[in-house]
Amino acid sequence: MLAGMKRLDMRRALAAGAGLALLSACGGADSGSAVGDGIDVQASFYPLQWVAEQVGGDAVAVSMLTPPGAEPHDLELSAQDVGAISQADLVVYLSGFQAAVDDAVLQEADGSAFDAAEHTDVDLTYRPIEDGEQSEEGEEADVHFWLDPIRLADVADALAERLGKVDSENASTFTDNAGTLRAELEGLDAELREGLANCDSSLLVTSHNAFGYLADAYGLTQIGITGLAPEEEPSAASLADIASFVEDNDVRTIYVETLVSPDTAETIASEAGADTALLDPIEGLTEDSDGSDYLEVMRSNLATLRAGQPCR
Ligand SMILES: [Zn+2]
User: Fold this and answer.
1) 99 CA to middle of ligand 1, Å?
2) Considering the chain, what is the average pLDDT of its residues?
3) What CA–CA distance (Å, rounded) separates 274 from 288?
4) pTM of the predicted model as reported, rounded to 2 decimal places
């Protein structure tokens, strides 16, 4: 394989610090297509796109079904999107998160889809606040598993195995890439663990119940202001409940997010004498995101939490 490569190509691959990229570059040359082409992967939203890119490297071309800046929960698919799903070598998605994608996968991508929910525990639920306390009823599923880096690493390992079945020549590259990614995610996990070990409050009050897995991993308890879907507006009664909960429990900060209006959270915060701060559920990445990839935004979230809880 290497013999067929031009010296310049080899030097470029080595300069990129990616000896493993040689393999995928060869794969591209063998199939007669340009380097950079590869397995066609459709990822349904940002964290899965990021993982597919990290694990697939140069051997995959990853497209994303949720446009940057769009709210992924209520994604609607165009006919073109559905066509892309049916033609993809692999669709990487999360069942139970985006109904339109679930439907399209069922219709168009039977046998060529990778469901992240099958490869990590997506089992948390959330309980809303009623009468100033967490209710015992009305549980809803929390799908935002990627906010726990270890769960994301589990999905990355499984994705490497699946990509290796689609493109067996690059199987060891995918495994190595997933190993590198796991090391980075475990490093992030250690930073979160240490950074959130000594905080005044363990109550995490958020405008969007996306942080259950993060809370679960690092000893916090999430209190959500709205339902799990960010478009749900709380009633006046539940606003008052939450305001009294915030006041009674000496919560200093209510966390709002990038993609959704923070009005409700600010109303409660001013009523209860708390501040608001931006905590990003990383459902999408835009120019306004506080970081250029998953790892950077997670580290920004850690800094925000350390200031808001506050932690020593
Ligand atoms: Zn969400």
Assistant:
1) 13
2) 84
3) 24
4) 0.82
